Amino acid sequence: MSVVKNRFLRGLLFIGGIISVAVGFIGVFTPVLPTTPFVLLAAWCFLNSSEKAHRWIHDHRILGPPLKRWQKHRSIARSTKITATVMIVFSLTILWLKGPHLWLQIGVTLLLLGVSLFIWTRKEA
Questions:
Q1: DSSP assignment of 105-119
Q2: Residue 56 and residue 77: Cα distance in Å, rounded?
Q3: How many CB atoms lie within 10 A of CB 65?
Q4: Model pTM score
Q5: Taking 60 as the threshold, does the pLDDT of residue 1 lie above it?
């Protein structure tokens, strides 16, 4: 466990972890926000700020197993890859149908293609 010694920084990391969990939770229900990166960020923030919060997220019934799988094997379950890809395609479809600016559409498309490449090049659980 590598808890940061500076009390102020530890507090900021803890708040960042809480915000990341909240945004990740919102991402479960919205196609535009990805859940996994925010859960991973929350786990890192908690690792560096609070042993209790870190233990909570790793022992969580839903969030814990994918975190443990990532930590131990650096792998992503095939079902998670498929779900992420479907959500990315859905998000890009909405963006290209309703997006306000071409530069934004291209930028987000490139970003999400990079995310997809990262996801599909990871080992499977």
A1: HHHHHHHHHHHHHHH
A2: 22
A3: 13
A4: 0.70
A5: no
